[in-house]
Description:
- The protein is mainly alpha-helical.
- The chain contains five helices and no strands.
- It has helices at about 5-30, 35-50, 50-60, 60-75, 90-100.
- α3 (about 50-60) packs antiparallel against α4 (about 60-75).
- The protein is globular.
- The model has no long low-confidence stretch (mean pLDDT about 90).
Amino acid sequence: xxxxxxxxxREDHLTRMEKEVFNQYKPVLKKFxxxxxxxxxxxxxxxxxxxxxxxxxAFLGTFRAGFWQTFGKFFGVNLKAGYNPDKDSDDxxxxxxxxxxxxxxx
Length: 106
């Protein structure tokens, strides 16, 4: 993004990339259940140490990130959800499974 000389070029590039991502992943994501959506948000948080909301906010801005947060909450998925396997038993299970997959045991 920083290699583009003007703000307009950055915005155009971001718009193109957003369309490509939507076209590639929308059909798969539309088939996710609520629990799969929650799991995806947790895994994104685990891998990036950032909430999905903060990532969207960085790329799309506050208003559009807020829209997606509201949309997600409507379907029971909180994009601002944290990931803490030490305090949340569901997160601890996710962590155990991820570690086993990373070690090739699952």
